[in-house]
Amino acid sequence: MGRMLAGALAILIGWPTLVAAEQWRSYNLGDYAFGAPESWAVTLRRDDEIDLASPDGRYALWARLWFPDEPLLGYDDIVAHGPLTIAGQDALFRHSEFASERFLEYIFEPRDAEGRVFLFQLIGNLELGAELAEHQALFQRLGAELVVAGVPAVSGTASSAIAATPAAPVVAATQPAGAEWLDLMNARHGAGDCRLLDLDRWHHPTRAVLAANGALLRFVALCRDDTWPVFGVELPHDPRVAASNSYISPLLVRLFDANGQWDLSLIDPGYGALVDVLGRGRPDVSFEFMDLPMR
To answer: CA separation (Å) from 7 to 67, 72, 78, 122, 294?
Structure first.
């Protein structure tokens, strides 16, 4: 079973104070637009590249139209990677660790007329104290501002947040279970259309599969025109640990079958794990395991 542990996926649930109350500035590069805090200095600007740096020097944001003249995967310094969809476009997430730097990046698959792909990188300076949790959260926050050919990464977010970054969300006592993960679900599995279901009124064969395997169901959301379910669960074992394979693999296959062999996802906040189950239109079912963003 292939395992790809991605430390950051697309959208921030709680972002660092580094960007919490600051005005943002927008930038454009071909069909791509993105935002960054106004205090970040532009260190390089040309037709195919815009580089910025945070005031404290701990982070550098590089956005460029790049001709991929080397393999994207297969290097020892890559510690996590995984596919995802941003603004309706296929992209690759990649997390690389070097002696003094950490790279979190999105590589968009569509090529322009010159054969270039869009590369969006946030580099953390480890010697200056760029901690992984903050790096992940900042990358997710910056990724939330991406706009591709006029389509925002997160519906309703990209155009407004560039003008003024909203305050960190406050989770009200009456907020339904799973609401804090809707942004992440929309970024990875939907197009702004993910919606939570009422568990008291929701009945489906997948619910019985979860119960029979000792998984507590906390919420269910439907994304992609109600074709992609996301189950919020409490699993008895960490799904990313090899010792759990004998439990998690059969469970995921049973869920896939009970879901009519449509793709689905699980979120387990307790273990900080997200699992995609992919098999529709494919000869085999595969699983992608990722870390949830730090909160």
So the answer is: 25, 17, 12, 13, 8
Where does the pLDDT of residue 28 fall: very low under 50, low under 70, confident under 90, or very high at 90 and above? very high
As given in the structure block, the two tokens for residue 7 are 């430390």
pLDDT score recorded for residue 5:
34
- Pairing state of beta strands 273-278 and 286-291? antiparallel
Q: What is the value of pTM for the model shown?
A: 0.53
User: Long-range pairs for 85-89 at CB < 8 Å and ≥24 separation?
Assistant: 85/188, 85/189, 86/10, 86/143, 86/146, 86/148, 86/153, 86/187, 87/146, 87/147, 87/148, 87/149, 87/151, 87/152, 87/153, 88/148, 88/151, 88/191, 89/148, 89/151
**Can you tell me the distance from the alpha carbon of 293 to that of 56, in angstroms, rounded to the nearest whole number?**
23
Query: Which pLDDT belongs to residue 267?
Result: 94
Say whether pLDDT at 7 is over 90. no
Q: Given the structure tokens 């890559």, which residue do they identify? A: 78
Please give the structure tokens belonging to residue 122: 């946030």
Domains of the chain: 17-163 (3.40.1000.10), 179-291 (no CATH)
**pLDDT bracket for residue 239 (50, 70, 90):** confident
Mean of pLDDT values over 271-295: 86
Q: How far apart are CA 176 and CA 57, in angstroms?
A: 39
Helices 245-258 and 205-212: angle between axes, nearest 10 degrees = 160
Check: CB of residue 157 under 8 Å from CB of residue 10.
Answer: no
Are 74 and 94 within 8 A, CB to CB? no
How far apart are the C-alpha atoms of 154 and 187, rounded to whole Å?
Answer: 6
Cα-based angle 230, 153, 62 (whole degrees, multiple of 5): 125
